[in-house]
Amino acid sequence: MSTQPMSRPLPLPLGGVTVVAVEQAVSAPFATRQLADLGARVIKVERPDGGDFARGYDTAARGLASHFVWCNRGKESLAVDLKDPRGIALVRRLIGGADVFVQNLAQGAAARLGLDAATLCAAHPRLVAVDVSGYGADGPYAHKRAYDMLVQCEAGLVSVTGTPERPVKAGVPAADIAAGMYAFSGVLAALLRRATTGLGGPVEVSMLEALAEWMGHPLHHGMHGGEAPARTGVAHAVIAPYDAYTTADGGQVLLSVQNDREWRRLAGQVFERPELGEDPAFATNRARVANRERTDALVGEALAALGTADAVERLEAAGIACARLNTVADVAAHPQLAARDRWREVGSPVGPLRALLPPITLPGGPEPVMGAVPELGEHTDAVLRELGVDARECARLRREGVVA
Q: Is the model's pTM score more than 0.85?
């Protein structure tokens, strides 16, 4: 009689992987934080005089910068002056024992320091080395300054976001996040290739190219259909009704009717006007889009007579996709996130801070690491000891401003 082998807990997938990152702002730090969440050891190299400039963006997280808290938990901070030959020598020694190197310095700065992916991979064939840039290593925009809002504009995202009267940028750093996600997945792909070939290799990600990929629908609509979709606020350019509507208690409920069967249910079960389901002015999506103002007026009138909770209940009972238009505070108290136990606390220099579990869930193994947010230079001495720098030399380097 055969028996199934006992299942054993799965380890975090990146346990044993060491990442060195010369990073700042959001794009590269967001990528390496996700590597840390999955078990990698991430050593963040920062300037001694203030560190990653994102540390100074604001003081909203109980005195710490909200961007920094979001993107840098679970990392070790090594404060070292890369302009000092002794400092760059230390970082090169550190990279020599790493699996992954990530940098998003200003274009050309990494190459001047010998920290660009091509140089490092030539010296360390098993290393996965990632260059994150604004516009790529060549081309007429290669040396152009690339901040998130600027890239959102260059990638066309701002042109399709907002109202008919006013374009707006996304409320989150979409270009940084897009580049960070592709850098993260690029590292995973390169590590998988190394597992089969023994070779790491360079990975290149640009913010413009990452966000241009995310522009897929409006880009293809415009290239192949003649014009880009119009800006419609929270409405949908080619579906109606699909918008946010104000309820009797001042809330807003967004609903989406995806087909004509749903429209008939909305008309009969929510509006209690089943005749609208067959009215030629509204019976098809094409007709509803052509008569968008009248369609929206019907929906708005019906929901204006209902409280938010009642509106959501009726829409869900009718099988109509809907959502509350939540504030940031609403998301922090979202019942679905609470029910799924998605909140944890992470350590920081100011004490525990609330943070969401990463969205990648790996059942059968331990939770993501979600380590503490580091102080600037918190791990400098420990990392230098691993490199064989004794206490006396470490003290001298600190006195001379090479490390902090």
A: yes
